[in-house]
Specification:
There is one protein chain. Strand 1 and strand 2 form a beta hairpin. The protein has a four-stranded mixed sheet, with no helix packed on it. It has a four-stranded mixed sheet with strand order 3-4-6-8, with no helix packed on it. It is elongated, with a radius of gyration of 22 Å. The termini are far apart. Helix content is 22%, strand content 26%. The chain is an alpha/beta fold. It has a domain of 66 residues. It contains one helix and eight strands; from the N terminus they run H-E-E-E-E-E-E-E-E.
Length: 100
């Protein structure tokens, strides 16, 4: 009987934990859109990055990930932070990218 009770208790715990995952509300507002610095130099999905030639400067903290498709750029954090998914380069042979 002891093994049956332990198995039953384990099943109840697993069902309870599963129900927490299933009924947890998804907060879609907490996910910020992905920012892209396109190969042509345009900035997509934000006005929080200022462009001056090949220098891109943050103007406030970001809660987004940044995808950089352009090479030969400087991304200046200007004391601000990127708290989303980080900074990713999609070019395999990117040249002269500097983060400051």
């Amino acid at each position: 009987m002891g093994t049956k009770n332990q198995s039953f208790a384990l099943v109840l715990v697993v069902l309870f934990l599963t129900s927490l995952v299933v009924i947890s509300p998804v907060n879609s507002q907490s996910q910020s859109p992905q920012i892209t610095i396109s190969a042509d130099g345009s900035i997509v999905e934000t006005n929080k990055i200022h462009q001056n030639g090949n220098i891109y400067t943050l103007t406030e903290n970001l809660n987004n990930s940044i995808i950089i498709e352009k090479d030969n750029i400087v991304l200046d954090g200007a004391g601000f932070t990127v708290n989303g998914g980080g900074i990713q380069s999609v070019l395999l042979h990117m040249t002269k990218m500097q983060l400051s």
